[in-house]
Amino acid sequence: MVSSSIDIVMAKCALVAECAQRYPDLKAKLAVVAERWLAGPQTINGKTYTADDLGGYLMDASYFTAGVLPRDLWKIIQGDVSPVAEFVESRDYYSEGQFMTHLCKEEIPFENRAAVADGTEKDPVARLMVASMQRIHDVCAAIDVGPISKAEQAPVKTAIPTLFLAAEIDPGCPPELTRAASKGYQGSQVVIVTNATHGVSRSSPCVRKMIRGFFQDPTKAVDRGCLPAADTPMSFMYQ
């Protein structure tokens, strides 16, 4: 999903004249960099970085900072790894520990470690994530999380009015999974926010207004009038 999110951003950059001019052929150039990092650790300015570091940066950036992603990808392509270095230095392992306690009980038991690599053979950006994703399986295998309930993976079926919100760019909760999850919710409403990244309610006053309207009357169609149209060009930062 990280690779798909990065692809979306790069495609949007190609549709914006200034972005396309500043950062031409991003996808092919990033693939070359990814292959190089996959081949072995990279020592730059006296510090050594791994494919895990690049993959972790790409995941984090596609979650939260897509507007500067083309700029920072171009830096990396040109040999300036400061975006990766800043990501490595800011990792919060306590939060990762909290995250793992849930992941190891609610998701990983229902997934296949080997399947993590499926479909990545021709996608070097996706392959950057394989080792770290498989390592999650290994960590979970060593953690005693207690009995695993099959209910964690049982599809929900309900008639309770539900509003599903998803960002167009989100490697962890992509729109296709949102749409799939909503199928068991009778009368649910699904809103995909164009050009948005993970956590749409935090970043969009329009979405927060929509949520308030839904709580006031969950049987009424939410007002999407303030959302950007599906073909709205994405805004990028270049400095």
Explain what this protein looks like in three dimensions:
- This protein has 239 residues and is mostly helical.
- 24% of the residues are buried.
- 49% of the residues lie in helices and 9% in strands.
- It is built from twelve helices and four strands, in the order H-H-H-E-E-H-H-H-H-H-H-E-H-E-H-H.
- Helix 1 (2-14) packs across helix 4 (51-64), helix 3 (26-39) packs across helix 5 (69-77) and helix 4 crosses helix 6.
- Helix 10 links the parallel strand 3 (163-169) and strand 4 (189-197).
- The model has no long low-confidence stretch (mean pLDDT 92).
- It has helices at 2-14, 17-22, 26-39, 51-64, 69-77, 82-89, 93-106, 124-127, 130-141, 175-182, 200-203, 205-216; strands at residues 42-44, 47-49, 163-169, 189-197.
- It folds into two domains: 1-150, no CATH class; 155-216, no CATH class.
- The chain has a two-stranded antiparallel ribbon with strand order 1-2. A two-stranded parallel ribbon has the order 3-4.
Distance between the termini: 27 Å
Whole-number mean pLDDT? 92
Rounded Rg: 20 Å
How is the quaternary structure best described? Answer: single chain
Number of continuous helical runs = 12
Order of helices and strands: HHHEEHHHHHHEHEHH
Largest sheet: 2 strands, antiparallel
Class by helix and strand content?
Answer: mainly alpha
The best one-word shape is: globular
Strand content: 5-15%
Overall structural domain count: 2
Strand order of the largest sheet: 1-2
The total strand number stands at 4
Query: Percentage of helical residues?
Result: 40-55%
Low-confidence stretches: none
